[in-house]
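User: Good morning. I'm curious how NAP would be positioned relative to this chain. Could you predict the structure with it bound?
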Amino acid sequence: MTTLQLKDAGLLKTQAYVNGEWLGADNGNTFAVTNPSTGEVIAQVADLGAAETNRAIEAAETAMQSWRQKTAKERSAVLRKWHDLMLENQEDLAIIMTAEQGKILAESRGEVAYGASYAEWFAEEGKRVYGDVIPNTTADRRSVVIKQPIGVVAAVTPWNFPNAMITRKAAPALAVGCSVVLKPAAETPLSALALAELAERAGLPAGLFNVVTGINAPAIGEQLTGNPLVKKFSFTGSTPVGKQLMALCATTVKRTSMELGGNAPVLVFADADLDKAVAGAIGTKFRNAGQTCICANRILVEDSVYDAFVEKFTAKVSEFVLGDGFAEGTHIGPLITDKASAKVQDLVDDAVAKGAAVTVGGQVDALGENFYQPTVLANLSNDMRVSKEEIFGPVAPIFRFSDEAEAVKMANDTEFGLAAYMFTENMSRTWRVSEALEYGMVGVNEVAISSEMIPFGGVKESGQGREGSKYGLDDYLETKYICMGGI
Ligand code: NAP
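Assistant: Good morning! Here's the predicted structure, ligand included:
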């Protein structure tokens, strides 16, 4: 087992956090968390199941009764402190993240700051939960609308953003008076547990933020989706798992938020600034080694600039350094598992068998099974799996289109609808195409579209609900109408 060099060793927790206590599984079982770059075990973490999950839900229900009675300002102070502690411990949190997730250290630092920004934002936004007084049809009545916390929130999060996908749910929930039971991904529980430690240090009362770690996701998930005390289920992960969990939530009619998979197109028109388009497409494709839900999945380039684009894009990608996320100079880290690498290889092999050209990369690297080479594919067609499936790896397929109508049709030809990007210098086209794209988010000449201030989320099978921004509170609030008569 390797030891992480942290300034504050107290941030490396291996027990689950339930009702303000650090505890092991009832049966004492643990599971290993490994570093995807080296395969070394970093920690053995408590492997909880259904019984412990239900106890966490009950604790959350009890804790929320007094938390919801506090003023928004009182809750805000705790969240603000949580934010400050995340930033004070940014380096340690980043080291934990790179060790368990593999992303390069600079990206981990960036994610910690991004994750913290949700705590800061919702500390403020939680103070602005307004109601309404609605004019009535009868003179002696008043109709009042108030917003109330929805109740216990169950959250399930993925491994690709081990910090920010948690704060994006927990911060708004806690800000409005809800409590949270979180199941982080089995690959990356350590970042979640470090957040719990910092929440405790920030003064968050016991039972409000519970972290249930475990490898039996269906057993934990069955309780989170089935227990009637849970009023809201918020999921970030793949579309197939999201669909299953939504169906389970139907039995108790829970409100759901679903942040699911994507198949983001980048449309590059002939009137674009080509260098800007190349830099943008590379930025969105290779972040986290291609393992983000808003990573470019298909790059669509207009005929007349196609060859020039492929040439410039390939030249830049050829310069990328693949390696351990902790090593100086690394641009791209490993994929999360060897299974992920094998899936990426299958997609590349399928494209090549159907006529695609590999201009750089194209295979698992000699560094090890988790390291997939930064890859560019040209001469793509719509019968190839890369046109339909989420690649989740450092592979950039570059398609060709002949006019705007065809570009929009190709972009929308997917069941997903999370993020889309376009590069053009034509203002009229910007409006036309932005409106025609069936996506929850559109970046125009910009790919760094995420922040705590914007509504993040998708349409179609990419999900429902929005996280971040003033809209991000809605998912954790109920709207209650009160009719006052005899006035
Ligand atoms: P995943 O396989 O769907 O897993 C996501 C989470 O669900 C993990 O915590 C997993 O636990 C858990 N899970 C799996 N089966 C479950 C069950 N039956 N009951 C309860 N929980 C269950 O997704 P992933 O591979 O971790 O993440 C990558 C996916 O997330 C991609 O599709 C990506 O696009 C999507 N994503 C979307 C957004 C967005 O905002 N739209 C953001 C980030 C990622 P275990 O780890 O224990 O299996």
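Residues 332 and 404 are 33 Å apart (CA to CA). The chain has a mean pLDDT of 98.
Let me know if you'd like a different ligand tried.
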